[in-house]
Amino acid sequence: MEIRKLEIDFDEKILKINGQDFTENPVLVTLPGPERWPLAMVVNSGLLDKNLEGCIELTVSFTVNAPVEDDSDI
């Protein structure tokens, strides 16, 4: 699936992909949280059995890259 637009609302437990509500499958959504601890929730949990089998996983990561030094003077 190509994702061009992503909306995640942890308070309302809503997941929209490409502008459409994603309601067909249970999805384990994981986002970066405070102090590097992940935030996780299951969207559409009513479609889930007692374990996470069959659950789609969506993980968003965030990385800050260190600035690259300019070697052009060498």
Write the layout of secondary structure elements.
Layout: E1 6-9, E2 14-17, E3 20-21, E4 27-31, E5 39-43, E6 56-59
Parallel strand pairs: 4-6
Antiparallel strand pairs: 1-2, 2-3, 4-5
How would you portray this structure in words?
The chain has 74 residues and is mainly beta. 0% of the residues lie in helices and 32% in strands. It has strands spanning 6-9, 14-17, 20-21, 27-31, 39-43, 56-59. The strands form two sheets. Strands 1-2-3 form a three-stranded antiparallel β-sheet, with no helix packed on it. It has a three-stranded mixed β-sheet with strand order 5-4-6, with no helix packed on it. A hairpin with a 4-residue loop joins strand 1 (6-9) and strand 2. The radius of gyration is 17 Å and the shape is elongated.
